[in-house]
Amino acid sequence: MQGQAQSIAGRPVVAGSSSTARLQGRRNAAAAPQATRKVTSMVAAGPRLPKPIGGDSGGDEPLRISLGEGMMGGGFTNVDPESRRVVPEANGRTKLKVVYVVLEAQYQASLSAAVNKINTHRKEVCVELAGYLLEELRDAKNFEKFKKDVASANIFIGSLIFIEELADKIVEAVGPARETLDACLIFPSMPAVMKLNKLGSFSMSQLGGGGKSAIGEFMKNMRQQNDNFEEQLLKLVRTLPKVLKYLPSDKAQDARNYVNSLQYWLGGNDENLENLILNIAQSYSPACKGIDFAPAEPELFPDVGLWHPLAPHMYEDLKEYLNWYDTRKDVKFEKDAPVIGLVLQRSHLVTGDHGHYDGVVAELEARGAKVVPVFAGGLDFSAPVKKFFYDPLGSGRAFVNCVVSLTGFALVGGPARQDAPKAVEALKSLNVPYLVSLPLVFQTTEEWLDSELGVHPVQVALQVALPELDGGIEPIVFAGRDSNTGKSHSLPDRIDSLCSRAINWAKLAKKEKREKKLAITVFSFPPDKGNVGTAAYLNVFGSIYRVLKDLRADGYNVGDLPANEEGLIKSVLTQAEAKFNSADLNIAYKMSVDEYQKLCPYAEALEENWGKPPGNLNSNGQELLIYGKQFGNVFIGVQPTFGYEGDPMRLLFSKSASPHHGFAAYYTYLEKIFGADAVLHFGTHGSLEFMPGKQVGMSGVCYPDSLIGTIPNLYYYAANNPSEATIAKRRSYANTISYLTPPAENAGLYKGLKELKELISSYQSMRDSGRAVAICATIIETARQCNLDKDVKLPEDDEAVKNMSIDERDAIVGGVYRKLMEIESRLLPCGLHVVGCPPTAEEAVATLVNIAELDRPDNNPPIRGLPGLLAAAIGRDIEEIYAGNNKGVLADVDLLQQITEACRSSVREFVKDRTGFDGRIGTNWLAQLSKSLGLSVEPWVRALQGTQFASADRQELITLFTYLEFCLNQVVRDNELGALREALEGKYTEPGPGGDPIRNPGVLPTGKNIHALDPQSIPTAAALKNARVVVDRLLERQKDEMGGKYPESIAVVLWGTDNIKTYGESLAQVCMMVGVKPVPDALGRVNKLEVIPLEELGRPRIDVVVNCSGVFRDLFVNQMNLLDRAIKLAAEQDEPLEMNFVRKHALEQAEELGVSVRDAATRVFSNASGSYSSNVNLAVENSSWSDEQQLQEMYLSRKSFAFNSDRPGAGGEMNRDVFTAAMKTVDVTFQNLDSSEISLTDVSHYFDSDPTKLVAGLRDDGKMPSAFIADTTTANAQVRSLGETVRLDARTKLLNPKWYEGMLSSGYEGVREIQKRLTNTMGWSATSGMVDNWVYDEANATFIEDPEMAQRLMDANPNSFRKLVATFLEANGRGYWDAKPEQLERLRQMYMDVEDKIEGVE
Amino acid sequence: MSLVAASLAAPQAPGLAAQSRRQQQQQPRGRAAALVVRAADAPKLSGGLTTTNSSLLGPKPNLGSPSLGGGPSLGPKLSTGRPQVSLDDVPLKSGVEVDYSKLRDLLKEGKWREAEDETREVLIQAAGKGAVKRGWVYFSEIKFIPVDDMRTLDELWKAASGGKFGYSVQREIWLQNRKQWPKFFKAIDWVVGENNVYRKWPAEFNYSADAPKGHLPLTNALRGTRLFEAIMEHEAYNKTAPTMGGSSGSSSNGASQPGWLNK
Questions:
Q1: What stretches of A831-985 show up as alpha helix (H) in DSSP?
Q2: pLDDT 10s digits, A922-966
Q3: What SS3 class is residue A1111?
Q4: Closest approach of chain B CAs to the CA of A641, in angstroms?
Q5: Rounded to whole angstroms, how far apart are CA atoms A923 and A915?
């Protein structure tokens, strides 16, 4: 890592040939001493390979370490394949050369052993063996060597080659050599590689036989579905003898040899592999002609079975296994010992590479758990799950209490493609916790330990993301890989952690409910008493109260519960003994420093950042304080904060810190003193999972892993936030349980806006009369009062109106009307959700209307959106109406409004029809009765009758409403409390996608373990199509505003969340900007690129600067790779510079910085590994910043870590020069809004990632870039300026009575939500300057100048109200709000009042 | 916390070891052959074997010391008392008819590396037929190894090293480090570097009298630390009852407390 490894002994260390890095190195030569340690350790302890030390350009830098080489050219693995080579002493024997490429390193050791045996014992022949692991072929040097090896080989063996770019390389190398090879054996792989098979006359494709060709079928199936291929291959092996009868005998012999070879291979041990080589040699090597090695027949092992390191053999029956197991004398188990089911990979067992499995079995048994280890040879592990994990006596119940897969693969499908529904079905029926831990596959132990990324991204995609779709939890790396032998081995501390966690999960099923201890953890940030219990969209204390009542009814001991939720809040927030309202929360436990040090094994490591315990956070100076309150066996605790929010220096410089002692003490308390059986993190989201450490696949020194310790972690998480939920799952081992976001409503109109709507109605009815002019003038005046003048172009004065034509007036009214409707129809979550409380049918209407609006061509059957259907009924095209509306054409605005109203009323009628008398969804028996009598018409037909849309296509409507019916049932069918109860009983939590319920109703019902998506599947074709629309609209708009000129560079922000929800739309936008199209490979994984020719693009390639969030980086490293390749590809197109801005800028920067064009075209940036956000949000939320300069410095220092597809293994490398150079050229900044629920001022993350003012500061001309926000939340996608979007957001939320009254119905939490919106608004002032003065004025009028309102806020949550008042003063102090003296005076007075109230001075 | 013993420990060739053992079953007393195969399997051996000058090791006869016939004084205390005992004075007691003379001779000749291999071999034999067939010892088998055998092994190493090496010496350090493996491995120098990467077996371990206290003999951590723990907890080195079968995993509050918390 360049950023870290800057200097050794004060001298700059230079990264290989990259002079950028050298510059960087010099500039940062004063880097932290830490960096020195890192480099030193890589030299001393890193992989033991010759390091290119000493350099080519000598001079003043005596020590040159190629950091690139530290990761082998930046790849992910750097074991030299040479170390695997076996070279025999021929001693006059015939020498054969065998070359192999495998995915599974476990074959390495047994192949070496097999060849060593041949070389030791055989008199006629000896073998040279050269082996490559698939991933190593990415390295150019390795690939060259590989090609040379293959060219001189006699026999080539390849297995499990399913990564297309590497498959291509193998075809490239082996294809030409196929002629000269004696034999070429390819075991299950991609079709293109399979075709390389060569055994005499045998080749995969020609094997036909009479009529139906088994292999032909097999190949076809494989192309079609790509899954189950290994199972099919095994089936083929079994059926082939029959097929062979139809073949001419010589061909049959060759085919038989192939089948035999496969059996040797699947047998995998050294004897089998020895015989495989000998058999092939005697049959096909001319040099061995006539020799009979008398190889033994393949030794066969069961495909599926049970295994134990001490067992005399494998078992194929659970009863037989248990018969043996229960008579073991070496261990005795308790009668009610937990039983852990283990899922193993057969190839590790047959090749004898099972040291890591032995370790897990030993650890579990040593901890008193029984084990049932099962294996499968194919890729469908659901078979052994179904066969061996159930009660052998046939009760139908699970025999195991917890399943741990040690394969790392999805339960069904392995490395090619998974079948999650099949897996989920098997696991749901078994109904126990399902953990998927993984062995290192592509990296050696040392490489993993050294890596800040953690596990190799390809492995993350295959072995972390895919198992998550099955509901797998806890991706703990339990096994390392030895660089000498390629063998897997236990990572003792990881196995310790995995096994104790698995047993604790299993124990949940064993323990009595009455005895079970649950630690509910709530959050509090920014650190302020008013913020205790923050969570997105959630009424936290209301929900906790509901959960506790539910648990009490279920038999848990929840002690003396307060009478209501206010009582619950008070018990946590206030110190019972304190005389006054104190600043402190209730102290649940005081931990002495001595006890802390004894109980917390990593306490010492925290001292580097925080000094000796107890420190001053969560401490009284002598002891560490645990805040919270215990009720029976339930503890409600407050998670401490990061601790550095208020420290600008740390915010600026800490690339990664560590938790403070108070944080460590909290989790130590939960595990070691309270003795929690499970912890429940309550709501989205806390700090634990964002603590420093590897991104994925943590080691024992990563803080989230240390903190969570051995406690099973349940986590209520908002269903619409799959990206951060995924971080919580991977880094804090959470089993998430999704909760619904609050019911959405249309924002509606209020005050002046409402008046405007009425005026427009009058105008329409009197448009031709003499009064039209006057009404138009009033409209203009009112619009101005409502501050709409920035959104709609209004004439200067009344005189101007008088002279207008009717068309001109229409245009103005149309513009205002359009804006009003935009505000009115905006969806906003109203109030806060309470867990387990589904919306009423009425509340679901707005959501359903939005669901009904979208076309769903991919649905089966395809669904057309309601607006489109209605438009068609009157002979119009909805896209055309949208376009007219967007331009403010009055007739179209009005028509769209009528369509919208018709949509709403028909959906409302439909819902009414489905609603029981209690307002909940049920069967309305009256409706049912009349329907059965044939008396009624469909409700939506009723709604449309008498309107111009009555003739809408009935069949299409039925399809649509059938779908809506399904959605409606899903919305109200939540399992939020049920899933928690079940998880606490040690049951499986069903997985489900996270995302926007409107786009993807599959998110519903809630109460599921959230997963993201297969990261390799995006961007989808649909996303690409939508991205094109947005990019075109963006460029058009900018072009309009810039006098016909295209922007040269766009700074884009990429988030994980929106890419998950939209299947990669914003990712695709970047590709579209530079004019490169991502293309899927044969297995549907998007990893190829095509340049769109300029003629087709019809415009210049626009340069980009891609700012990825830390979450995006964690989830989509492969996509960062794709983007970097796409941008560099664009930069390398030899095209006129005025048509290729990427190239234009890259050439300039290459010159300026003295680097290659390719390096200069570095455009994909994010945080350093393990660090998130620019910290601008923390600084703003805590008011801990001096000036904007400081915020911009934070952004620069934290977000300028470049991703480089030429060195993917290096992760993010500090590359501030290139970042700055690229940002200087930016004309436009751009972000996406992905759902109506998370808008600009709802979360602090949007302004945190906004670089608008930063760009202005960097640009040579100091010009403020245009800032745009794409809004694809509705069918009619919009690109708005940032200013427009901020105004829209203020109007629909902060200033909208419907919104704030909804919030205030949740009291304490509601005040905080209001205050949060204001703080976030000020954040926008700080980063973009796009907040109008009137927004602050209006907010002040609403919340401060209205005495009644002010009093309500103060009473409900004085701490948050104080912050609200302070934020107004701060906005004025920083020059964002030009307030009148009396406004300020009032605020100051109010601040003192609330201070008094908080201090208890009444 | 900052320590992690991540990689593996010693023998990397159980397959070969098992193979050699199979041969050995055919030709009784064929252990030498087994060692030959192993050595051949490790051609990349460097350093480590160089310091074989036994005069450096100082196993000077100390005839004045008390008999080491397995008396109660052989607890952990002994390694601190450290009376110099001659290798020849160590009685080669075995409750399971394992012959320890070869180990003694290798130690006497200062062949640390070979003695190290032999130790693993005799431990497998002492652990019983299952272990021999498997080629490695499962942790639960250790408790069946008689106290005599475990003491003999320990005494031989201590005698040869002047009290520097041996299981009881390792146990003492292990306890000092509150049974925390990462710290313990660091203390006996089995890990290197900032990330505390396990030394590569066999080449990177120090087979000499210069090695840090407790560095030898090696115990394989390829399969986790339970085997090593079982050795450390063997009653030969521990007067209190051995605590196996989930001792450290279960405590009153159901949370997994490290065992030392209860002490």
A1: 841-853, 866-873, 878-887, 890-913, 925-932, 939-944, 954-972, 976-984
A2: 555 555 555 555 555 677 778 888 889 999 998 899 999 999 988
A3: helix
A4: 21
A5: 7
Taking one residue from A and the other from B, the number of pairs with CB-CB distance under 8 angstroms is: 178
Spatial contact of A547 and A533, defined as CB atoms under 8 Å apart: no
Which residues fall within 8 angstroms of residue A178, CB to CB, at 6 or more apart? A184, A196, A198
At A864, the amino acid letter reads R
Q: Give which of B3, B7, B184 to mutate to test A binding, by max A Cβ within 10 Å.
A: B7
In chain B, domain spans: 87-262
Strands in A607-693 per DSSP E: 623-631, 634-638, 678-682
Chain A interface test: which of B136, B222, B228, B262 (most A C-beta within 10 Å)? B222
Q: Find out whether the peptide bond into B11 is cis, omega within 30 degrees of 0.
A: no
Contact A1102, A1052 (CB under 8 A): no
pLDDT tens digits for range A631-678: 999 999 999 988 877 776 666 655 557 899 999 999 999 999 999 999
Q: Which two tokens stand for residue A1296?
A: 């909208």
| Cα-based distances in Å from A537 to A476, A745, A981, A1254 | 31, 14, 22, 31
At B158, is the secondary structure helix, strand, or coil? helix
| Both tokens assigned to A277 | 């080589």
Closest CB to B12 among A485, A492, A511: A485
* Distance, CA of A684 to CA of A522 (rounded, Å): 10
Q: Are A1247 and A1324 in contact (CB under 8 A)?
A: yes
Residues A467/A1015, Cβ–Cβ less than 8 Å: no
The reply to whether A984 touches chain B by the CB within 8 Å rule is no
Domain spanning B87-262, CATH class: mainly alpha
A601: which chain B residues are within 8 Å (Cβ-Cβ)? Answer: 1, 180, 258
> Could you tell me which residues come within 8 angstroms of residue A1077 by beta carbon, excluding any fewer than 6 positions away?
A1024, A1071, A1089, A1090, A1091, A1092
The C-alpha atoms of residue A1326 and residue A1371 are separated, in whole angstroms, by 9
Biggest CA–CA distance in chain A, Å, is 113
Chain A contacts of B8, Cβ < 8 Å?
A: 355, 445, 480, 482, 489-490
Interchain proximity A711–B1, CB inside 8 Å? no
Among residues A568, A574, A684, A716, the alpha carbon closest in space to that of A635 is found at A568
Q: B189, B206 in Cβ contact below 8 A?
A: yes
What b-and-e string marks burial along A20-40, b requiring 16 or more CB atoms within 10 Å of the CB? bbbbbbeebeebeeebbebbb
Task: Give me A67's structure tokens.
Answer: 């950091």
Closest approach of A353 to chain B, Cα-based (Å): 9
Distance between CA atoms of residues B87 and B72, nearest Å: 19
Distance from C-alpha of B32 to C-alpha of A240, rounded to nearest angstrom:
48
> Running DSSP on this structure, what letter comes out for residue A840?
P
Q: Give residue for tokens 């700055």.
A: A1220
Neighbouring residues of A770: CB distance < 8 A, sequence distance ≥ 6: none
What are the DSSP calls for A1136-1204, one per residue? -GGGBHHHHHHHHHHHHHT--HHHHT--EEEPPTT--S-SHHHHHHTT--S-HHHHHHHHHHHH-EEP-
* Tens-place pLDDT, residues A521-554: 999 877 777 788 888 889 999 999 999 999 999 9
The candidate with the shortest Cα–Cα distance to A303, out of A201, A189, A384, is A384
Query: What is the ipTM metric for this complex?
Result: 0.81
Report the alpha-carbon distance of residue B102 to residue B116 in Å, rounded. Answer: 11
Q: How far apart are CA A462 and CA A414, in angstroms?
A: 8
Scan residues 149-208 of A and list those with Cβ closer than 8 Å to B.
Answer: none
**CA dist list (Å): A1020 to A858, A1016, A1024, A1087:** 12, 10, 6, 12
